[in-house]
């Protein structure tokens, strides 16, 4: 399927049908979507991070209606989104409007689902107005649907991954000056290159050098990179087809300035083997826990187990982190269309850290590696 | 007070004392801070927008403890933040940890407050674990405290405003090419200039040209600016002292490419008079509603009332929008330390729009205009 042939209206109509079927089968009387990725996944529209309430009311039988602040309404491509708009003007009570719209469905509602990232203040208002309702997180309904990507989504994620690969390759080729620059300055260049490579937005750019590498989510700061540093570069952005909601990239590569010490080389060999083992474990029918185990087992066997302090990966799509999570013991069974990161790491506090991350897609025949940048340890001169 | 003399630890200790006094006087047994600005205002630390829970447990008597994912813990400057860390490792249940920490306070708790922007999914988990608790939005406790800025905060907001002014003046001087460029390209340059002027982050840059100006929150797109266009430029970023949490800027200026039509000139004169009237109304003891009325009255009297479709302003601080809100009928009484935008607008659907926005601070003797860029209609040649 070529990018231009994606019929977004048809895609969104399919998603809405699937959601409604799940509402019916799960016994959920309505789904209320506000902040977070469910709303753009379903409609292409993202709620502004404002104190004014935006909320899509999805019912098993009636058409979806978007409650939206009047001054945001012109930004909604209502026809493309296939929703009816219910703009509210300043001074009106949007919660009352949501309740009125719920009356078109099962009344009184017994169970309602609300966006995981809806703001607590809005949920509290809804709860005060509908005290008898049992509330669920929307992800119980939307998570499994969003986790299984269709072909167009896999293609978009591959587009995002290729754009991130271009930046990783530039770093590995020594085209991004590192030595003598601060982490923050390097992070800014990484961000700029993510945009130049086709991302519409930069989501994050971690540059963690020397001992800072031992903090997996280190915030790039004033530390100047110097010879001997192990540098963890973890970055990603959002990449979108025209008119479509964006999909995320996320890649990590580790480089050494100068020659790697024997200790770093040994640890990296373990890391690379662990990541390869985890990727090799990916296929339909395998559990997420088994993929985690494949990586963790290699690292534990080499004696680094206590320095691998996080899960092996996370699903990726419209959100940077979404289902399926690749965690120890997870019994989620992988199926074609699941797309997630495989990113083991080894972190020696106060000394150095390293991580190797790629996005993989589960395919009927096994897996596809969406990232292709080289995975070996790169030593950079100059 | 000079920027370097601000003792952030002392400031944060004062804020914690004030919060605890309010918890006691409001009969709130605990305050749980997660996403949003309350946490960085109190500690300098901002929760990552992750599915892993970060939550500060503030009790009337016991010391504050930050529940934080183990891999984020190294990012917290715990000593500066004056909190104890309770890191949780993957597989642990952070909600259980929060509940255990609450046991150090009034038990069982009857009323708890949670960050307005905490995620619904986390509130639902807490509610499932503590079904008897009455939940409140944290802003009922923190909002009035955060709304009244101390001298160092007013100084930071003035610093942010001056940085935004520099960009506004450059636009008004014709230093930012407009004609023949798309809104999106202009927005990118505005963002770059916000950083160059000293902002650490760009929060938004609206460029709304011609008929797009009639949508107050228009997303800059492919429309190319041309002679005759009225262009609304509304932008802001975050500006921080070293080590301090950032404060926001927010300014809007409207320019015309070429000569303004008589209609645009007439409407702009009304807008400018309305904004001046509202600023002139700002002083201690006046209600927020009276400031809104001052702007709205001028616009209504001139016959444009139905085209001014939003409130007159919003408080600004660590968040772009916070208390006090300058809305019709608001009975909130202004007091020294309140800082907010004054931003009336006139929007003619399908034709053009205009808005004029400045940040003002309420002072004991009246007000201070934190933005100083010229407010008249600017016609740009070339």
From TrEMBL, chains A, B:
Provide the leader sequence positions.
none
Q: What class of enzyme is it?
A: hydrolase
Does the entry feature the keyword Mitochondrion, yes or no?
no
Transmembrane among the record's keywords?
no
Judging by the UniProt lineage, the source's domain of life is Bacteria
The EC number on file is 3.4.-.-
Q: Name one GO molecular function term.
A: aminopeptidase activity
- Where would I find the Creatinase N-terminal domain in this sequence? 15-148
Q: Which keywords fit this entry according to its UniProt record?
A: Aminopeptidase, Hydrolase, Metal-binding, Protease
- All copies of the Peptidase M24 domain together span 160-363
Belongs to which family?
Belongs to the peptidase M24B family.
The protein in question is named Aminopeptidase P family protein
């Amino acid at each position: 399927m070529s990018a231009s042939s994606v019929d977004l209206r048809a895609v969104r109509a399919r998603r809405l049908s699937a959601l409604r079927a799940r509402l019916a089968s799960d016994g959920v009387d309505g789904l209320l979507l506000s902040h977070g990725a469910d709303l753009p996944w379903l409609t292409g529209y993202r709620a502004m991070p404002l104190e004014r309430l935006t909320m899509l009311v999805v019912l098993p039988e009636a058409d979806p209606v978007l409650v939206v602040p009047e001054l945001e309404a012109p930004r909604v491509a209502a026809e493309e989104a296939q929703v009816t708009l219910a703009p509210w003007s300043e001074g009106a009570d949007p919660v009352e409007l949501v309740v009125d719209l719920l009356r078109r469905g099962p009344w009184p509602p017994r169970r309602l689902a609300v966006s995981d990232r809806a703001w607590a203040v809005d949920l509290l208002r809804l709860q005060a107005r509908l005290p008898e309702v049992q509330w669920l997180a929307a992800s119980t309904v939307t998570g499994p649907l969003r986790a299984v990507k269709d072909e167009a989504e896999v293609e978009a994620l591959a587009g995002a991954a290729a754009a991130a690969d271009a930046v990783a390759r530039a770093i590995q080729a020594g085209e991004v000056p590192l030595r003598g620059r601060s982490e923050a300055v390097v992070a800014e260049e990484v961000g700029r290159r993510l945009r130049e490579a086709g991302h519409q937005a930069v989501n994050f750019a971690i540059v963690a050098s020397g001992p800072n590498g031992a903090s997996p989510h280190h915030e790039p700061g004033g530390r100047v990179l110097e010879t001997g540093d192990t540098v963890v570069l973890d970055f990603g952005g959002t990449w979108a087809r025209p008119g479509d909601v964006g999909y995320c990239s996320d890649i990590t590569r580790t480089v050494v300035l100068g020659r790697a010490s024997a200790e770093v080389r040994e640890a990296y060999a373990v890391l690379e083997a662990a990541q390869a083992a985890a990727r090799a474990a990916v296929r339909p029918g395998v559990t997420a826990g088994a993929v985690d185990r494949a990586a963790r087992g290699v690292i534990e066997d080499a004696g680094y187990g206590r320095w691998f302090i996080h899960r092996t990966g996370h699903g990726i799509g419209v959100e940077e982190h979404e289902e399926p999570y690749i965690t120890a013991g997870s019994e989620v069974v992988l199926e074609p269309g699941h797309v997630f990161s495989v990113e083991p790491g080894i972190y020696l506090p106060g000394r150095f850290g390293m991580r190797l991350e790629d996005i993989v897609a589960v395919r009927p025949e096994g897996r596809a590696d969406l990232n292709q940048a080289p995975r070996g340890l790169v030593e950079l001169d100059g």
